[in-house]
Design a protein that fits this description.
Elements (H helix, E strand, L loop, with lengths): L21 H14 L12 H8 L3 H14 L2 E2 L7 E2 L21 E2 L12 H14 L14 H15 L8 E4 L2 H14 L4 E6 L3 H9 L3 E8 L2 E2 L1 H7 L3 E4 L13 H13 L3 E5 L21 E6 L11 E4 L2 H15 L4 H12 L2 H27 L4 E2 L7 E5 L6 H10 L2 E2 L1 E2 L12 E5 L5 H16 L2
Parallel strand pairs: 3-14, 5-6, 5-8, 8-9, 9-10
Antiparallel strand pairs: 1-2, 4-11, 6-7, 10-11, 12-13, 13-16, 15-16
C-alpha cells in the first residue's frame, strides 16, 4: 500500500458543551480512527499548529492530546520530524462487509453478461486519456442534460451508419442504461393518460417491473418465430408497445418483414408509440436496420453499452420522437442533471477511433465459438434438451422436455454454483413451457463444457 507523503486530512468534531475536555475529545477521536483502521500505521498527522488553526482552538490543547497518545503508544514523534501513527499497530477486527446483492457462481451462465475478460482495457484507457487531454475544462462542469455533444455527435453518426437509425443528435439523450431510459418513458406515458403498455411474452422481466413501477398496466403479447403477434397487439387495446425486433429476448426470433410492416401500420394508424429495445443487434449475424429509421416519429429507440462493452459502464442512449424528446430531456435534467461525463467523453473518442466497431467484430467471432461450444456440450450432457437456433448475440434459449421441474433444476444448479435463468422468469403465464436461458458469452469454451458437466451431475443428484 502506498504511503501518503503529506499530512492526512482529519475530520474531527469538537463539542464545547460536552463534559469531556477538548483535548480528551481529540484523543478519543484519534484513538478510534487508529483502532478502526481509518488511520494506518505511519500516517502523517497535521502539525499541532495546523490542527489547532483548523479547529479554532489553542495549540496547547492539541499538544496535550498528542503527548497523551504518544505516551499510550498510538503516536510517535522524533526531533524535527512530523507526528505519525506508531508503526506496528493493527486495526481492531471490524464487522465483515455486507454481502453483495448479486449472486456469485463458479459457472455463471447469466444471459446478460458479455465477455468481460474481452473488454479492451488498453484501448479504453487510451480513450480516457485522450478525453481528459483534449477536452476543455468547462466540459466537466454542469453540462447539457442530454449528454456531452462529442458523444451525441459520434453516437448519432454511428447509429445512422451501423444501425440504420434516423439519429439526430438534437434528440439523442444519454442516460445510465436501458432501465433509466425506459423508466423515463413509462413515467411520461403515465403522466399523459396512457394506462396500458404491451410487452413481449416471453420478454425481459425488468421491462415489466419498470412499467408497473410507473403505474402502467402490462399486456403480455405472444411471440413466435416471426416475432411479436401484431394481431394480438391490436386486440389488446394498448397504446404503446416494447419490442426487441432485431433479436427477440429471450427466444432469439427476428421480427419478420411482414410483422414489421404490420407493426408500423398499427403505430401510424392510431398515433401509437413503439419502444425499440436494441440491446445487442451489432453482435448478431444478418442484421436488419432499426425500426426507428423507418418511422422516427412513431418509434423511440433505446440502446446501451451493457452488452456491447460492459454493464458496469452504465451508459445508455435514447432517440425519442421529436414531439416527446423535450419532455424526456426535462425529466432527465430534473432526475439527475445529466449522466457522468468521463465515460461519455471516453466513449465518444472510442467510437471516433473505430474501436467500438473493431471490438464488436472480435466479439461476434468469439460469441459464435462459445455458442457452438454450448450446443455441443448440451448434446453430450442433455441430449433431450433443444437449443433454439439463434443468429448470435449473448444468449441461447433451451427448451426442456414437457414436465421438467424447472424450479427444481434451477435450485439444484444454484447449489452446485451454476447460475442460469429460467424461462419462467421472463414469462407472464404460469403454464409456460419449461426452459432455460443460457448466456454463452461470459465463459470460455472449456468453462462452458465444465459448467454443463457440473449441471448434469447436480441435476442427476437433486
Amino acid at each position: 500500500m502506498a504511503s501518503l507523503t503529506g499530512p492526512v486530512e482529519l475530520l474531527l468534531t469538537l463539542d464545547p458543551r460536552s463534559e469531556r475536555r477538548l483535548h480528551e475529545q481529540i484523543e478519543q477521536a484519534l484513538r478510534d480512527a487508529i483502532r478502526e483502521g481509518r488511520l494506518h500505521a505511519g500516517a502523517r498527522l497535521p502539525s499541532s499548529r495546523a490542527l489547532a488553526s483548523e479547529l479554532g482552538i489553542s495549540r496547547g490543547v492539541v499538544t496535550t492530546a498528542y503527548d497523551q497518545l504518544v505516551a499510550e503508544g498510538y503516536l510517535e514523534t522524533r526531533q524535527g520530524a512530523p507526528v505519525r501513527v506508531a508503526g506496528g499497530l493493527r486495526a481492531q477486527p471490524t464487522a465483515p462487509p455486507p454481502p453483495s446483492l448479486i449472486a456469485q457462481f463458479s459457472y455463471d451462465f447469466s444471459p446478460g453478461l458479455p465477455d468481460l475478460a474481452g473488454f479492451p482495457r488498453d484501448r479504453w484507457l487510451r480513450s480516457l486519456r485522450s478525453a481528459w487531454r483534449e477536452t476543455p475544462l468547462d466540459a466537466i462542469g454542469y453540462t447539457d442534460p442530454r449528454g456531452v455533444p462529442e458523444l451525441r455527435n459520434a453516437l448519432g453518426d454511428y447509429l445512422a451508419r451501423v444501425c440504420g437509425a434516423a439519429a439526430d443528435p438534437e434528440h439523442l439523450l444519454i442516460a445510465t442504461g436501458f432501465r433509466q431510459c425506459f423508466s423515463l418513458v413509462c413515467r411520461w406515458l403515465a403522466a399523459h393518460g396512457i394506462e396500458q403498455i404491451a410487452l413481449e411474452d416471453p420478454g425481459w422481466h425488468a421491462q415489466r417491473l419498470i412499467a408497473e413501477e410507473a403505474g402502467l398496466t402490462v399486456s403480455p403479447i405472444p411471440v413466435d418465430g416471426e416475432g411479436i403477434d401484431v394481431v394480438a397487439l391490436a386486440q389488446s387495446g394498448a397504446e404503446a408497445v416494447v419490442v426487441t425486433p432485431a433479436h427477440q429476448f429471450p427466444t432469439g426470433a427476428v421480427l419478420s418483414a411482414a410483422r414489421r410492416a404490420a407493426l408500423i401500420e398499427w403505430a401510424e394508424r392510431g398515433d401509437r408509440l413503439i419502444v425499440e429495445d436494441d440491446y445487442d443487434s451489432e453482435l448478431c449475424a444478418g442484421r436488419v436496420g432499426a425500426l426507428q429509421g423507418l418511422v422516427p416519429d412513431r418509434v423511440l429507440y433505446i440502446g446501451s453499452a451493457s452488452k456491447r462493452l460492459a454493464p458496469g459502464m452504465r451508459l445508455g442512449w435514447m432517440l425519442a420522437p421529436s414531439w416527446m424528446s423535450w419532455a424526456l430531456i426535462s425529466a432527465k435534467a430534473i432526475e439527475d442533471g445529466g449522466s457522468e461525463i468521463t465515460g461519455q467523453l471516453a466513449l465518444a473518442d472510442f467510437i471516433a477511433r473505430g474501436e467500438l466497431e473493431r471490438h464488436l467484430r472480435r466479439m461476434r467471432v468469439r460469441y459464435r465459438e462459445r455458442h457452438a461450444a454450448l450446443v455441443a456440450g448440451l448434446a453430450v450432457e442433455f441430449p433431450d434438451w433443444r437449443a433454439v437456433p439463434t443468429i448470435g448475440g449473448l444468449h441461447t434459449l433451451v427448451r426442456l422436455p414437457a414436465g421438467t421441474d424447472e424450479p427444481g433444476l434451477l435450485a439444484a444448479a444454484a447449489r452446485a454454483s451454476v447460475g442460469i435463468e429460467g424461462l419462467s422468469l421472463h414469462s407472464y403465464t404460469a403454464t409456460a413451457s419449461p426452459g432455460l436461458v443460457f448466456g454463452h458469452a461470459h465463459l470460455a469454451p472449456p468453462a462452458i463444457t465444465q459448467g454443463l458437466r457440473r449441471l448434469s451431475t447436480a441435476f442427476a443428484n437433486r
